[in-house]
Structure prediction request, 497 residues.
Amino acid sequence: MLFTEIRRNQKLAARRSPMYDRNRFAKFLIYLFVAFWAAYLVLIGVSLPFVFEKGFSGMEPYDVLNACLPGILFLDFLLRFLFPTPTQEIKPYLLLPVRKQQLINVLLVQVGLKAFNLFWLFLFVPFAAMTVVRFFGIAGVVGYAAGIWLLMVANAYWSVLVRTLQRRHTAWVLLPLGFYGLQLLAESLFPEGGISCFFMTLGEAFMQGRVLAYLGVLVVIVLLGFLNSRVQVACIYSELNRREKVPQSKHTGRYRFLDRLGLTGEYMKLELKMIFRNNAPRKNFQMMTVVIVLFALSLLGLSHVGEEEFFGLHLYVVYCFTGYAISILSRIMAYEGNYLDGLLMRPGSLLYLFRAKYYVYCLLLVIPLVCMLPALIWGGTSVLLVFSQLVYTAGVTLPAIMLLALVNRKTAPLDASLMGKGQWNSPYQALSVAFAFFMPIALCRILFLWMEPSTAYLVCALLGLPGILLHPLWCRALYRKVLRKRHSLLENLRETR
Prediction:
């Protein structure tokens, strides 16, 4: 059977990867991190019934959670951007005598059967065991869990469709924006019959075991699966038949202002050309710019921040500053794997490359800073918060992500936007993203226990200053460590091209 054969080949490919032995410890940390969040969701599921009973005395707790389902589905939609799409996994099978439509259908079935679709049950099952079982019994809990799983499967296919289209063209980002914008508009215009009321009714139908509710979600899954199948195949043929553009020489004088920086300036030009001329990094840059602008505009709605909005405010600010680093810089040495042989021909070239990368991504911090100016001027966002996270990102987050040069051993394609390799070079990238996201927030929360917010922000800024001032030293130290491993690095990067 094709499904079992593809699954067996995927397991063999993972075991035969040059990074298999190196990634074992990182995978252990990932599993530990997942187990922590699963336990955390269970704790939240057990605690929410008591919170809802106190805060919403006129409603049943399960109705309150069902009303929040659109927000949970939106969060799940965002998390799925970390996963590869079926078009990224089909490349090894293109030369086989198997219909591409059949391959895509099998890979789409795998999307629906992924274990991640069951992850949110760590929240819903304990919650249902404390609230639903009193009214609908064990059958109600099982029916509710099955309905939530079907919703997550439908959300998975919706996410795959959006990710495939936006990788094809950045303008497709307007599709999810319009979809979720219409949901917010309907909720504001029709508070008694909006999207939250629909999900309250749907959730109760799951608990009662109504067949029509399950059939409705199944119809949505089938329609999204059929649409995905057609779109994925069309995108595959489009990518296979595309013609390479002949590079134009009319912009040879671009970035001339960097000439005064010598060799470092030349490598800064190389980094900027890699971002803006190559398909894969350019798509990442465009998508991240859209997200940063949206997050910066969201800060306008958090002008008077209370304790309950602490996490949201800091997450928006941190994401704005770390966006380019986690989407492009986290692939350090992966993009360079396409031409690293030429780089190593000149002594000290990697040192200039590391310095140039650091300078370029420090300069890119100006973009989120400019985007956040309306929130600083009219929204009331703390200037100290933005300044501290700017300095912390430049002095702590960027050096930490650049350490991935020691562990990234898989070459990432520069021009394959649809059928390129998967999202992550190694599990260490996922750990670095988690560090970049949550470490500043956790640090501020801990500092708030002993000092005022303004003092805590200054401490965060002071933590970033050594990394900025001493960047020549840590860049040279990183260069020496990479140079010691250059032979194994070249071998692994060549094998994965």
Observations:
- Residues 304-308 have pLDDT under 50 and may be disordered.
- Residues 5 and 11 are 10 Å apart (CA to CA).
- The chain has 23 helices and no strands.
- The two ends are 30 Å apart (CA to CA).
